[in-house]
Write a structure and sequence with these properties.
mainly alpha; 5 helices; elongated
């Protein structure tokens, strides 16, 4: 086997960690608020995805749709777990990283995160 390839530079990992810390601070470390706001941005761009999550039509703003807050908290918790382990990315997730699904998920996540920081 050849040398291990680093998925991200350490400077990129540090930047992601710092950005995530800033996002959490902006939302008072409330994972539910962070996750719901990420979903809200995604649904603004792709409203047809609301059907996938079975969000009722009368719930115009999911930030006020209490049943969806658990999903938001779960999303932000998973993002936080990934970022807390960002320096172990290759060791922890080597088999998964070769998957094209992860690549697609990372693109969607980074786009949503970029929107959240706007």
């Amino acid at each position: 086997m050849g040398p291990k390839v680093s998925i991200l530079k350490n400077s990129t990992r540090a930047a992601i960690t710092d950005c995530w810390r800033t996002v959490l601070e902006n939302y008072d470390n409330d994972y539910s608020k962070v996750g719901v706001n990420i979903y809200a941005r995604i649904f603004e761009i792709c409203p047809e995805l609301r059907q996938v999550f079975h969000i009722p039509r009368e719930a115009h703003d999911i930030r006020h749709h209490e049943p969806f807050h658990r999903s938001g908290k779960l999303l932000a918790s998973v993002i936080d777990l990934c970022i807390r382990n960002i320096y172990k990315l290759e060791a922890e997730m080597e088999a998964v990283l070769v998957s094209s699904r992860l690549f697609f998920a990372a693109i969607v996540f980074l786009h949503a995160w970029q929107l959240l920081l706007l």
